[in-house]
From TrEMBL:
Residues 1-23 form the signal peptide. One of its GO terms (molecular function) is serine-type endopeptidase inhibitor activity. SUPFAM superfamilies: Alpha-macroglobulin receptor domain, E set domains, Terpenoid cyclases/Protein prenyltransferases. The keyword Acyltransferase does not apply. Residues 454-604 form the Alpha-2-macroglobulin bait region domain. It is found in: Secreted. This is Alpha-2-macroglobulin. Residues 744-833 form the Alpha-2-macroglobulin domain.
Length: 1462
């Protein structure tokens, strides 16, 4: 321990000597420089510099120093007090760079200099991509816009080098190159093909400045929801509540209530701890079945006491999942909600209190009281205690706040404040009680040597962004710090916003020397909009005595954008097909993007809304606080011999002025040498640090550090909710035919011109819904976004169709039309479905098509429809209010004077019946030696569904492009144990080989990879045993491991072209492996592996021997070597047995390829070909027993071995590069976004195979033209060049079946694929339903009972069936137990149950695809029957009776003839 103390003493003595050896003069000159600790490269930034009381003429130099050199910012000769704020140009940087600001003051005989580090960040920009909708159907057009701006929201010019669109399989299906933003908005769109796969699509845009932004959207086959299910719960349920009200409301998008039934599950979940499983509690749930009232809501009073409020083993929240079923249509939509459960009845917290108080200036702050819902509590008494015995009682205002201002004149040292609202009950273990949470705060005395202070006053709320603002500060300046006769003291201020100094100035204040000066000064803030989200203000003064007095504060500002945008419809509600005017206002000259979409789309899929808050959240820097680690100026730690703390809390220094020899600073020896660590918030240095400003000064700004002080602090936080209202009105109109139902109504670019306002006339679409609209604008004044607005399209009498996404030709479906009457009077409605040659229909049984409808009522009508054609079918339904004398209830039916007939025309997609099939033909064409052509015949099978065939051709320029685009990300630094180290080592070699053979290897990549290889090589040698083998943990393992040793051996061999590898290590490994060869040639497995997935499928001696043989052959292809010969004998013997393990077969195919044994190779590959899986136009090999969930790493590995076998030897007929290309397509689709696969060994083998294939097919330059012709007149041309190598180009083909020729001319290889889709009819024994039964019996009672369970599932092609009937025949002599029907009827899916003589018929609404339902009934024996025959249970679609399934059941109680004698 002695040494550090001696060092310390040496430092202290040296400093003292240094200080006595300098002149008094120069050190009396006080200087201060302030600059932001973080600046933007390439921008103008501000710094302020001042000199006070120069004792002699001095020259001042300010410089910015970087590694690349020094730039002078200011050189000035100074004779008197000097203050200047100036702009300086920050150099451009590519990445964040640390620089330093250096200030030098040169006197006649001495120099003072000081420097501090600042961070230069490259300029940051905000990029926003907006699509017209968050979700699309296949075949719709995706429209999107991109806008770019700087951190001040001013649009910037950008060239988008590449904008591309990727499908869920990572194919690039569209690209736009070198797009320049014109007038601030880039507007693009892409039509999706009707066959577009469902899933998530990604738009990626890359700019010429190297920025990348992405945005995703979904493609899905969906039906838009017509209404929303909302759950209303109290915002919190407390331990004091006995009951709570649950309301579930359904509201159509046009604002009217939904009438229907509700099933709600209300739960409190048990907490599950995996370490605590002794008495696991179950979730507590209640199920409520309700119906909605006139307002569309269903209400349930929940008994809270049933949910164990006093137990702590449950989650502190309640969850509700509700389903609402619309009457008539049977449409079910879901909603969910949650609320918290709390025992915190009141929570008190301190708000806006500082960490330090300034003696003599009132200590201000607020106490906030919130209830259990985190909402403010008004008029609540709250107690505040401080300084031992002093207490005050405050009362909260409407915001739950109570302000206090405490006299600090008598305060000393650390003061503890405590605030509380009510005392708590005593604690009882494991029982929850109401809690009243209290708050503590500790304030230490602010350090000032002279007790001079300055304090910025707080403001209420946020500063308005529309007007200038003023902030006030109180000061106490001790007169003895001033010069004799001094009458004015200058205060300086800086205003920071988004990390930069944006305003500055000085405020002179009248003072009097010799007395205590108290008073207030004010600072005005200009152009407040540009300061948001925070104005960070620091006010300071430097007193003649050399002490700085300062304070800083963050003032929050209301978020505004300088381009004010508003969007308004001429009315809130409009009739469909009427004209409406959209008024758009923005800064003159703005270009605006306006959109309006159906609210239903947002109910289906929510999206990130474009709001002012969102735009601000994209700011690269909201405000500065503290300094980042790399620009802290570290100092020696003051409190030796205590241990030095970790770097995170290392002190943050401010280097002392370096004083050149020959100057005597004895006059100000009072200055302390060591300063406190960053945890201190009670000195001037920390005031500047809190807002991220660096101050370079020789004045007193730091508190001397007290090595025995400890501090504490507490704080709590709260948040709140918002609800919204709606407005409505109605208009009228005559007969309507509604045919136009878009999802995106408006997607326009509109210029507002010089007036800053424009009216756009639009026709309201025919959908009865709410249209959600918004706009964003760009102009030279900046970016602006409108508040969201809406227009409800509504008419009081209309018909609405409930349609599925698609139906199947020839299959029956139920068309439902609901008529709504929102008129005040009753009407007689007649509904008709128009005839058509596209479908046939019949009325449903017992259905009426003409009924009375009174005000706010609706009725649903159904028809049984069979579509007869494929494609889009048009359905036309009319509802007419009829003249009639019939009374409706007890009033006369009226006829509306306008809008008497409403007709709706909707289209429905009809798909082909049968099971979809796909056949694809891959052709890899390499025309470098001359044109290449390939003939492809599309042939149909004997049995296929007429009209279902379609085909397409696609062309891709670089198959390896996608697989290889993240290669440099895969380059990795090897680390970990002996195994992991090699897994990270090996891919570097394959990547280098690929890049080298294709001429893409840059010096930068080679240097990086070589560095990784060298460190991996050295590290692996530490796992080497003395006998030459390797194992996971080196010598601490008992022996080396055969698999790992061969992996190391081949990897070291592969690395030799790039780094120095000592040949001895390879020889030693080889010698050790040969020692373990058995007489039959196989190599014995020795040693254990830590991670089994590591060696992939190498599990037995055969696969191990195959792996080692391949490794030896990769090392040097010498087949005559006796070790290799013996290994091959072992493998040939194994081949004589069964080839049941596909993994081993794939590995052997690669080993025999390397051995040059073409006969065995051909045999193995032919066998593998027969076992391959060609789903989806690609080829791979399945592993028996794979889970099917996610990617199976062994499937990747064995597929890669087959690819290696194909590309490592001479090309085989029928197994050329075309064949390989289908394997590569599969592998490329399995890659994760970083280019790797699911595990380790599969990544190593796959990259080795892909790199080898890529090298064989790569061509760097030139373009290729691909022409597709047919025997018909087709002639399609695709061009592939460097710009679109990665673009997946696809076109439809019309002739199926057909003969096509694909011809390629040019230099580079291309992959062409022709794929054909068609449907085949189901096999004759296929059933659309699946039915099974099981029974539970009580036999040994007087009347034996039997519970019959019927399991039904629909497995056809429709999403949902029509009405379904389950017909159960009773066993002879058995009757139904009527009480069991109660349970059956309570099931929501059961519409009704009929019991006829000997049969039970259960009517179901319908079954969804692949959903299993279970129904049970109880039967009992009425008369014993001998030789009881099984009874039949049948399920069928009521309207499509050919869809059926049959099973049977019997009674286990029945006795057979042999025993039972009647």
């Amino acid at each position: 321990m002695m040494a550090p103390v001696l060092q310390m003493l040496a430092v202290i003595i040296a400093s003292a000597l240094l200080q006595t050896a300098t002149s008094a003069h120069l050190n009396e000159t006080i200087f201060a420089v302030t600059v932001s600790s973080q600046v933007r490269g390439g921008k103008q930034e501000t710094l302020c510099v001042q000199i006070h009381g120069p004792t002699e003429p001095v020259s001042l130099t300010l410089a910015l120093e970087m590694d690349s050199g020094s730039t002078t910012i200011l050189e000035e000769a100074v004779k008197q007090d000097f203050y200047r704020c100036l702009s300086f140009q920050v150099p451009k940087v590519r990445s964040r760079t640390v620089a330093s600001i250096n200030v030098t003051i040169q006197g006649e005989s001495a120099v003072m200099s000081k420097k501090t580090k600042i961070l230069i960040e490259p300029p940051a920009f905000i990029h926003i991509i907006q699509t017209d909708k968050p979700i699309y159907k296949p075949g719709q057009t995706v429209q999107f816009r991109i806008v770019s701006m700087d951190a001040n929201f001013i649009p910037v010019g950008r060239v988008y080098k590449v904008v591309d669109l990727q499908d869920p399989n990572s194919n690039r299906i569209a690209q736009w190159l070198d797009k320049t933003i014109v007038s601030g908005i880039l507007d693009l769109s892409h039509p999706m093909i009707p066959e577009a796969p469902q899933g998530s699509y990604i738009i990626t845009a890359s700019t010429d400045k190297g920025e990348r932004i992405t945005h995703s959207f979904d493609i899905k086959e969906y039906v838009l929801p017509k209404y929303e299910v909302k759950i209303h719960l109290p915002s919190v349920i407390t331990i004091l509540d006995k009951e709570a009200t649950l309301r579930i409301c359904g509201k159509y998008t046009y604002g009217k209530p939904v009438i229907g039934s509700v099933k709600a599950v209300f739960c409190r979940h048990a907490l599950r701890f995996y370490w605590y499983s002794t008495s696991e509690e179950n979730d507590v749930c209640s199920v409520y079945e309700l119906t909605t009232d006139k307002s569309g809501c269903a209400t349930q009073i929940v008994n809270v006491t049933e949910f164990f409020p006093n137990k702590s083993m449950y989650d502190d929240s309640f969850h509700v999942n509700a389903e609402m079923e619309e009457y008539g249509t049977g449409v079910i939509l879901k909603g969910s909600g949650r609320t918290t459960f709390s025992s915190h009845i009141r929570t008190v917290s301190f708000e806006d209190v500082r960490a330090a108080y300034k003696p003599g200036i009132p200590f201000e702050g607020k106490v906030k009281v919130v209830g259990p819902d985190n909402k403010p509590v008004a008029n609540e008494a709250v107690h505040l205690s401080y300084v031992d015995t002093q207490r005050e009682t405050l009362t909260t205002d409407v915001k739950g706040m109570a302000s206090f201002s405490l006299n600090t004149t008598a305060w000393t040292d650390v003061v503890s404040l405590k605030a509380w609202s009510k005392e708590n009950e005593p604690y009882v273990p494991n029982v929850r009680k109401p809690e009243y949470r209290l708050a503590f705060h500790q304030a230490s005395a602010f350090y000032s040597k002279s007790s001079s202070f300055l304090k910025l006053m707080q403001i209420k709320g946020k500063l308005s962004c529309d007007s200038d603002a003023t902030v006030r500060a109180q000061y106490i300046i001790q007169g003895e710090e001033l010069k004799k006769g001094q009458e004015v003291l200058e205060f300086f201020y800086l205003v920071m916003s988004r990390g930069g100094i944006v305003q500055h100035g000085r405020v002179p204040v009248t003072v009097k020397a010799g007395t205590v000066n108290k008073g207030e000064l004010s600072v005005s803030l200009r152009q407040v909009t540009n300061l948001a989200p925070f104005a960070q203000v620091v006010v300071y003064t430097v007193m003649p005595s050399g002490e700085t007095v300062a304070d800083s504060q963050d003032f929050p500002i209301q978020l505004c954008l300088s381009n004010k945008v508003s969007l308004k419809f001429s009315s809130l509600q409009e009739l469909p097909a009427e004209k409406t005017t959209l008024n758009l206002q923005a800064h003159p000259g703005s270009m605006c993007s306006v959109r309006a979409i159906d609210q239903s789309v947002l109910l289906l899929q929510s999206e990130q809304e474009l709001t002012i808050d969102y735009v601000y959240s994209q700011l690269p820097l909201q405000k500065l606080s503290g300094y980042t680690y790399d620009v802290e100026d570290f100092e020696p730690y003051p409190c030796f011999p205590m241990p030095v703390p970790e770097p995170e809390i290392e002190p943050e220094p401010e280097p002392e002025p370096e004083i050149a020899a020959g100057v005597d600073p004895a006059a100000r020896v009072t200055r302390s040498i060591y300063f406190g660590p960053p945890s201190q918030q009670s000195d001037v240095y920390s005031i500047f640090k809190e807002i991220g400003v660096k101050i370079l000064t020789n004045s007193d700004v730091k508190k001397p550090y007290n090595c025995h002080e400890k501090t504490l602090g507490y704080d709590y936080e709260a948040s709140g909710d918002i609800l919204e209202d709606e407005v409505q009105k109605t208009k009228t109109k005559t007969k309507t035919i509604r045919t136009y139902f878009p999802e995106t109504w408006i997607w326009d670019l509109v210029s507002v011109g010089d007036s800053g306002s424009v009216n756009v006339e639009k026709t309201v679409p025919d959908t009865i819904t709410k249209w959600a609209a918004g706009a964003f604008c760009v102009s030279s004044a900046g970016f602006g976004v409108s508040p969201n607005t809406g227009l409800t399209a509504f008419q009081p009498f209309f018909v609405s169709l409930t349609l599925p996404y698609s139906v199947i030709r020839g299959e029956v479906f139920t068309l439902k039309a609901t008529v709504f009457n929102y008129l005040s009077k009753c009407i007689m409605v007649k509904v008709t479905l128009a005839d058509s040659d596209q479908y046939t229909f019949r009325d449903c049984e017992g259905c009426q098509y003409s009924v009375c409808l009174c005000g706010d009522e609706s009725r649903t009508f159904s028809w049984i429809v069979t579509p007869t054609v494929l494609g889009h079918v048009t359905l036309k339904v009319s509802a007419e209010a009829m003249k009639t004398d019939v009374l409706c209830g007890n009033e006369v039916a009226t006829v509306p004077n306008v809008g008497r007939i409403d007709t709706v025309v909707r289209t429905l997609l009809v798909e082909a019946e049968g099971t979809p099939q796909m056949v694809s033909h891959n052709a890899l064409l390499c025309p470098a030696e001359g044109p290449v052509e390939r003939k492809i015949s599309l042939l149909m099978p004997e049995m296929f569904v007429a009209g279902s065939a379609r085909a397409s051709v696609s062309v891709l320029g670089d198959l390896m492009g996608r697989a290889m685009k993240n290669l440099d990300k895969l380059l990795a630094m090897p680390y970990g144990c002996g195994e992991q180290n090699m897994v990270l080592f090996a891919p570097n070699i394959f990547i280098l080989n690929y890049l080298k053979s294709t001429g893409q290897l840059t010096k930068e990549i080679q240097d990086r990879a070589t560095r990784f290889l060298e460190s991996g090589y050295q590290r692996e040698l530490t796992y080497k045993h003395d006998d030459g083998s390797y194992s996971a943990f080196g010598k601490s393992d008992d022996s080396g491991n055969t698999w790992l040793t061969s992996f190391v051996m081949k990897s070291f061999g592969g690395a030799r072209p790039y780094i120095f590898v000592h040949g001895k290590h390879i020889k030693d490994a080889r010698r050790w492996l040969s020692k373990h060869q058995r007489p039959d040639g196989c190599i014995r497995s020795v040693g254990k592996l830590f991670h089994n997935g590591m060696k992939g499928g190498v599990s037995d001696d055969v696969s191990l021997t195959a792996y080692i043989t391949a490794a030896l052959l990769e090392l040097d292809a010498n087949v005559t070597d006796p070790v290799v010969q013996n290994c091959l004998n072992c493998l040939k013997a194994a081949l004589a047995g069964q080839l049941d393990n596909l993994y081993t077969t794939a590995l052997l195919s690669y080993t025999f390829t390397l051995a040059g044994d073409e006969e065995t190779r051909s045999k193995l590959i032919t066998y593998l070909h027969q076992r391959s899986n060609t789903r989806g136009g690609t080829r791979h090999w399945d592993r028996a027993g794979a889970s099917g969930k996610g990617l199976d790493s062994l499937e990747v590995e064995m597929t890669s071995y087959v690819l290696l076998a194909l590309v490592s030897g001479p090309i085989m007929t029928d197994f050329g590069l075309d064949y390989s290309s289908s394997i590569v397509r599969w592998l490329a689709q399995q890659q994760n976004p970083y280019g790797g696969f699911s595990s380790t060994q599969d990544t190593v083998v796959a990259l080795q195979a892909l790199a080898k294939y890529g090298a064989a097919t790569y061509s760097a330059e030139g373009s290729t033209t691909v022409t597709v012709t047919s025997l018909g007149s087709l002639n399609k041309e695709f061009t592939v060049d460097q710009t679109n190598r990665l673009l997946y180009q696809e076109e439809k083909l019309s002739e199926v079946p057909g003969e096509y020729t694909v011809k390629a001319e040019g230099q580079s290889c291309v992959l062409a694929q022709i794929s054909m889709h068609y449907n085949v009819p189901p096999p004759p024994d296929f059933s659309a339903f699946n039915i099974s039964t099981n029974t539970m019996a009580k036999c040994n009672i007087s009347r034996p009972q039997l519970i019959l369970f019927v399991h039904v599932r629909y497995q056809g092609r429709r999403e949902e069936t029509n009405m379904v009937i389950i017909n159960i025949k009773l066993l002879s002599g058995y009757i139904l137990d009527k009480s069991s029907l109660k349970l059956l009827k309570s099931d929501r899916s059961v519409k009704r149950v009929d019991v006829e003589e000997g049969y039970i018929n259960i009517y179901l609404d319908g079954l969804r695809k692949d959903e299993t339902k279970i129904y049970s009934v109880t039967v009992e024996e009425d008369q014993p029957v001998r030789n009881l025959k099984p009874a039949v249970v049948k399920v069928y679609d009521y309207y499509q009776t050919s869809d059926e399934a049959v099973t049977e059941y019997t009674s286990p109680c029945a006795e057979s003839d042999t025993i039972n004698e009647l």
